[in-house]
Amino acid sequence: LHLLHRDRDYVLRDGAVAAVDLGAGRAAAARSWERGLHQMVQAKEGVPVTAPSRVTARLTHEAFFRRYLHLCGMSGTLTEARHELARGYGLRVHRIATHRPVARRSLGRRVCDTRAEKLALAAARAAALRAEGRPVLIGVRSVLDSREISRLLDAAGEPHRLLNALSETEEAAIVAGAGAAGVLTVATNMAGRGTDIRLGPGVAERGGLHVVSTERYEARRIDRQLFGRCARQGDPGSWEEILSLEDEVLRILPRWTIALVRRLGDGPRAALLRFAQFRARRRGEWLRRELQRAEGSARRMLAFAGAESRGET
After folding, report:
1. Helix, strand, or coil (residue 184)
2. What would the mean pLDDT of 60-89 be, rounded to a whole number?
């Protein structure tokens, strides 16, 4: 009732509750919460209650990938994770130069007081750039945010496309047209990592695709994945951040710190957001280390129990 919110943590699709992967922005239809929690959400939303799932075995991502004889990968945002990759997998990160020089420009950031003010400013900024003939991609955290910005754009008479966990069937068509002149797209992280938005005729001369980010995630590399949708393969492009003091990442900090910077300018506010993101990233790393440690202890206990049952101890 209080922590799991519709159109943020889950969506209703085809009369069923589907959990949303916030990192990918997609509905995970095969995923369900344990210990009756999924059934409680179903009852809250008035949809048919399914039988609870039962976990018979667990394996972390780290343990799964370490089973491979050879392990490697490529990403444009691995620098921030290099220490964790070294500790968890024994892998080093090597930088490879881009094929063409990067022409991506940062237009800075604005930090608003409230979430409503942030969404209104993002919609107005995107509309102004669209009027110049540039394609614009607004990146949001949740389905709820995407709907609210969509309503603001509708009220202003601004045509746009909406890409979220409820419009996955249209994803290919929306992405294919997102780089055309004057096209405005509102998207969750579905348009994040790996999405290749090709520029339409005449767009490069107008400055290329512009990305408006409305939220900072728990890891900076996820933010950079969104920024990287513009200025690909040597094309021009730009990005900016429009944030607020009510953003999700700030919940990790005491309320008094937010109240303190509310009277100050964008500089201290941006510094507070950076600090909150740093704290959230470190907490995530600590949780993953603890999970690996617990998994290692469980394996040793199971091995000992097996040896004892065979009379080897």
Report:
1. strand
2. 85
- Give pLDDT tens digits for 13-25: 878 888 887 767 7
Q: What is residue 238's three-state secondary structure?
A: strand
In the chain, % helix, strand, coil (3-state, to 5) comes to 45, 15, 40
Nearest 5°: the CA angle 171, 173, 177 is 115
The Cα–Cα gap between 138 and 23 comes to 16
Q: How many Å apart are CA 174 and CA 90, to the nearest integer? A: 40
Chain centre distance of CA 72:
23
Backbone φ and ψ for 256, nearest 5 degrees, come out as: -65, -30
The beta strands (E) that lie in 113-221 are given as 136-139, 161-163, 184-187, 209-213
d(CA 50, CA 28): 16
The distance of Cα 172 from the centroid of its chain, to the nearest Å, equals: 19
d(CA 241, CA 121): 11
Q: Are 209 and 199 in contact (CB under 8 A)?
A: yes
Read off the pTM: 0.83
CA 86 to chain CA centroid, nearest Å: 24
CB of 211 closer than 8 Å to CB of 79 = no
Element (H, E) at 292: helix 266-309
* Strand partners of residue 13: 16
